[in-house]
Amino acid sequence: MLRVSLVGIALAGLAAIPFAAVVASGLSAGELLEAGFSGLSAAVDAVGWVLVPQIALAIAILSAAVHQIANRLAGLRAGPAPHWLDPAVESALLLGLLGTIHGMVRGFAGLSPDELQPGPLVHSLGIALRSSFVGFLIALVGVWAKARPAEPEPENVEPVTSMLEPEKLRPLRREVEPA
Length: 179
Prior knowledge:
By secondary structure, the protein is mostly helical. The chain has helices spanning 6-25, 29-47, 51-74, 85-108, 118-146, 160-163.
């Protein structure tokens, strides 16, 4: 049985908007593909090529963080962090650093002090800083996703120090009652 809700209809309508825009544009498939690659190339150039693998890491790390939030909200015990989370967090930091270095080199490479133009230099430095920012942001979310809450102590277990109190000590040998 199919349940139709207003929310479902609204989401379907929102999802159809890009497809309607493509159909209304009247472009051929080749023209659409060329425009898509040109836009992707411009976007990557605007933010730096390092952002592409950073996005992949961000999706993976955010999925682990959402899983962690869902477990906490459901009151479930947190399991071990996924085995890939440590390398992903470290990779996000290193990709941010690599993007910073790439942006700095790109801004200053092969230029003499007389040839420096502020526009391209500011663009390259902006790419460098955005790359660092995204890398650190992804890593911070990953560090949070790795964190496990402290386990509460069971209520019925006495601390070891209370067991050593003299009144609670028991003799090691049992007295045998005569038969």
